[in-house]
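Need a sequence for this fold. Nothing fancy.
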């Protein structure tokens, strides 16, 4: 079956392969089998439907020339009805053939004119795209006829064009030879500009990237399955040999495979059951940048639908119960149903589709108030992509990307238009008041679409005067080479196109911290967990009993305070009335009693001690109040008040509790019940600082130790024995 022919290097251009041999070394058996299958495919040609599909793609993306320089007319009428794409492989072959014809459009037009067979009287201008596409394939087969082609799917227009070209194949071959001599080229590939030839070389050796779906299988299970299938895990891409793979250095859930293993990998159960999924690495880098910024229970907004794989990857890295992933731009009902089916197969349950475009969504939308991070993947020139066919098919990009890649550059007016669109989308994302970070990612190599857009947006003041301004955040991804470290000095993450990856640019914009706001413990732990700093530590929720106790205290506290205030005022009122008629220093007695009461109320910890007051003279005309009853009433009132203030203090400390610090094991002495000699316990106890009582250390709740009850001051001191 044919593959992208321009990525194949003929025997005359073997020198161009020397730069990529050290990157990948395959076994001789594998390379020979590839060459034999490729040479067989080159002689066979394609099915008629693939030619027609490629002609339709070429008709929409071919380079239009000024009126005074037009040599070949393509017409404006529609081509014959386009059959539906049968599968992804059929789709890929059509795009590859159209892209190859587009890169050699000028050469193929010159061959038609120089051979004298154009203009073609018997073929209309509407079929010129089909003529150019089939002419490229004919010269690629050394002007040999097709054979072993299924006639059941034959198309009349394709058969007519083929017969016409084959009847003039001698003239066409001579015109091609003159063209090569004119350009001093050993083969037709050498006529292309150097930038396009380098891009073809990179595409031919670019490895495959696949991310693991944690909702379907763990990384350990995936490694085990690959080992059973005969794959060997190696340290890096440079160690690839035969059936091997390695882990990516930037994303811990991404695996890398040699490019020639794609057909074998797609047949594995890991790929058929969506446990592993192929996708360009740039999208995984963007998703992991978002993950590093997330707090617990945060929602994410994906500004453009793009590839459903990006959305599924984002969902797989978030909490399915507490976080949501909103996706903009899903307009048709049929597309929505299709996507929901795909996400269900992936076991992604927290994705919500929005029909409006991102630019039309109001920042004050109620359903987006929990969104804290926006992932912005705007349309870009894409000149950092080495394998445009895969990128178009997987990321659902526009086929016009092929037009720019076939020229190796982008027109200035189009570049300015793209940069303006990117600026408007970025500033719109900055207007969401609740959002705390924006991740901006492109596959462009132009600063006009990258640094210039980001810096312009930061100085635009799009977030408004009331909200905290945005700033550039240093890269949240690991820096694995010198070039990444150099670009990180400007707070950008950038990868240049190479033999191991496509080009990528990522900028992370975060709001400046409001000094009046405090960071919760949940947020700190969530960010630490996202960076892998809390592996093996259980971030469990507090027990339900503690939650119920807190709620009960909050509900009963106001009522208790009001009741105690009433009791205290009644006691003071009674004492004042009782002592009015005394004859011996009544003012002094009242003063002493009032002072004692106020001093007792001011105590918050420890036991309550009432000062002894002067005994007033009894008044026979008034009822006698028992001293014991008065003291017990006051003690009860003050005891309740103390408990209320204590619960308030504990509750406040629980809310502002800092990050738990687990200390090393401590050997605690205890008293032997058989004697007075102290011994050392063989058990290890873990302790943490508790904010409720400063300076005290208690057993850590993370280890589920039970705190011993407090004893009264009258009871003898005992050591607590936590239960493990």
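Here you go.
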């Amino acid at each position: 079956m044919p593959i992208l022919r321009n990525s194949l290097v003929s025997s005359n251009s073997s020198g161009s392969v020397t730069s990529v041999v050290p990157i990948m070394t395959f076994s001789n058996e594998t390379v020979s089998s590839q060459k034999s299958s490729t040479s067989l495919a080159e002689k066979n040609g394609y099915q008629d439907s693939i030619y027609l599909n490629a002609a339709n793609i070429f008709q929409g993306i071919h380079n239009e020339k000024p009126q005074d320089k037009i040599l070949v007319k393509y017409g404006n009428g529609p081509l014959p009805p386009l059959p539906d794409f049968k599968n992804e492989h059929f789709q890929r072959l059509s795009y590859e053939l159209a892209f190859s014809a587009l890169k050699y459009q000028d050469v193929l037009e010159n061959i038609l004119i120089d051979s004298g067979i154009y203009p073609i009287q018997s073929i209309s201008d509407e079929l010129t795209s089909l003529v150019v596409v089939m002419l490229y394939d004919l010269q690629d087969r050394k002007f040999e006829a097709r054979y072993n082609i299924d006639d059941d799917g034959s198309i009349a227009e394709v058969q007519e064009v083929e017969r016409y070209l084959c009847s003039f194949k001698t003239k066409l071959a001579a015109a091609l030879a003159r063209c090569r001599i004119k350009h001093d080229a050993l083969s037709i590939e050498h006529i292309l500009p150097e930038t396009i030839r380098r891009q073809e070389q990179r595409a031919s050796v670019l490895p495959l990237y696949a991310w693991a779906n944690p909702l379907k299988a763990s990384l350990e299970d995936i490694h085990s399955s690959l080992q059973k299938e005969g794959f060997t895990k190696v340290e890096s891409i440079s160690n690839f040999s035969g059936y091997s793979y390695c882990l990516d250095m930037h994303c811990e859930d991404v695996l890398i495979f040699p490019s020639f293993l794609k057909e074998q990998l797609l047949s594995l159960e890991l790929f058929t059951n969506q446990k592993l999924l192929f996708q360009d690495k740039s999208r995984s880098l963007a998703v992991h940048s978002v993950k590093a910024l997330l707090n617990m229970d945060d929602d994410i907004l994906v500004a453009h639908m793009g590839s459903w794989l990006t959305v599924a990857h984002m969902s797989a890295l978030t909490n399915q119960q507490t976080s949501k992933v909103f996706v903009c731009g899903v307009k048709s009902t049929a597309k929505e149903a299709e996507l929901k089916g795909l996400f269900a197969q992936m076991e992604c349950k927290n994705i919500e589709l929005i029909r409006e475009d991102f630019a039309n969504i109001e920042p004050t939308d109620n359903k987006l108030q929990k969104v804290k991070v926006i992932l912005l993947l705007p349309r870009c020139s894409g000149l950092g992509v080495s394998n445009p066919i895969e990128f178009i098919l997987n990321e659902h990009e526009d086929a016009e990307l092929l037009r720019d890649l076939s020229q190796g550059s982008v027109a200035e007016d189009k570049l300015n238009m793209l940069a303006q669109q990117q600026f408007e989308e970025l500033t719109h994302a900055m207007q969401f008041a609740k959002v705390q970070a924006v991740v901006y990612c492109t596959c462009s190599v132009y600063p006009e679409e990258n640094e210039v857009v980001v810096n312009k947006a930061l100085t635009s003041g799009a977030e408004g005067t009331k909200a905290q301004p945005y700033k550039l955040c240093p890269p949240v991804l690991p820096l694995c080479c010198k070039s990444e470290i150099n670009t990180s000095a400007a707070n950008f993450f950038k990868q240049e196109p190479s033999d191991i990856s496509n080009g990528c640019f990522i900028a992370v914009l975060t709001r400046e911290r409001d000094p009046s706001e405090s960071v919760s413990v949940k947020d700190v732990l969530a960010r630490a967990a996202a960076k892998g700093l809390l592996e093996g530590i259980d971030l469990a929720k507090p027990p339900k009993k503690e939650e119920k106790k807190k709620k009960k205290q909050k509900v009963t506290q106001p009522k208790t305070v009001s009741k105690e205030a009433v009791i205290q005022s009644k006691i003071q009122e009674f004492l004042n009335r009782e002592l009015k008629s005394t004859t011996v220093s009544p003012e002094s007695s009242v003063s002493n009693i009032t002072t004692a009461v106020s001093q007792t109320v001011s105590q918050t910890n420890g036991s309550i001690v009432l000062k002894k007051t002067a005994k007033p003279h009894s008044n026979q005309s008034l009822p006698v109040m028992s001293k014991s009853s008065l003291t017990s009433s006051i003690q009860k009132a003050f005891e309740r008040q103390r408990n209320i203030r204590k619960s308030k203090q504990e509750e406040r400390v629980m809310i502002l509790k800092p990050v738990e610090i687990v200390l090393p094991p401590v050997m605690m002495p205890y008293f032997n019940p058989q004697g007075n000699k102290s011994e050392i316990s063989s058990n290890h106890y873990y302790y943490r600082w508790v904010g409720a009582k400063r300076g005290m250390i208690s057993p850590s709740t993370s280890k589920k130790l039970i705190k011993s009850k407090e004893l009264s001051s009258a009871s003898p001191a005992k050591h607590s024995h936590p239960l493990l």
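For context: The mean pLDDT is 76.
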